[in-house]
Amino acid sequence: MKKIGIFYGSQTGTTRQIAQRIASMLGVSPDEVHDVAKSSPSDLADYDILILGSSTWGSGDLETDWDDFLTGIESLYLPGKTIAVFGCGDDTMSDTFCDAVGIIYDRLQSTGATFIKGIDTDGYEFSSSKAILPDGSVAGLLLDQVNHPEFTDLRLRKWTSLIADAAR
Question: Structure pTM?
Answer without folding.
Answer: 0.97
